Amino acid sequence: MSRRTEQVAELLRQEINQVLVKDFEAPLGSLIGVSEVEVAPDLKHATAYLSIIPSNKIGSGLQAVEKFSGHIQKKINQNLKMRSVPKIHWQLDQRDLKYKIIEDAIKD
Q1: 104 in Cβ contact with 58 (< 8 Å)
Q2: Do 39 and 9 contact (CB within 8 A), yes or no?
Q3: What's the pLDDT at 83?
Q4: How many domains in the chain?
Q5: How do residues 27-86 score in pLDDT, each as one tens digit?
Q6: How far apart are the C-alpha atoms of 14 and 50, rounded to whole Å?
Q7: Cα 70 to Cα 64: distance, rounded to the nearest angstrom
Q8: What is the rounded CA–CA span in Å between residue 51 and residue 82?
Q9: Domain containing 68 — which CATH number?
Q10: pTM for the whole thing?
Q11: Residue span of the structural domain in which 83 resides
């Protein structure tokens, strides 16, 4: 990853989390945030990895974010001073699930 794509990825992560905190209403009893963003080398697309807690809210949380994604994209397009802002795609951060499996195994 180039320095430029790293900078754009971090900027997008911060902006998305800011929009989620200010404008997004997560499903009751859940917390949703973006743990990481990967940006394509041409800066046209970005994948935002969602962290959703607790794990039993993953389905409803992911669905809510996808439904709200147009608003998120619009806000980011307005806030960032870039020629073209990458189109954001959503994906669940699988690391959280792996940590939960390990944590559950340790508890037992």
Answers
A1: no
A2: yes
A3: 86
A4: 1
A5: 999 999 999 999 999 999 999 999 998 888 999 999 999 999 999 999 999 999 888 899
A6: 13
A7: 11
A8: 26
A9: 3.30.300.20
A10: 0.85
A11: 3-107
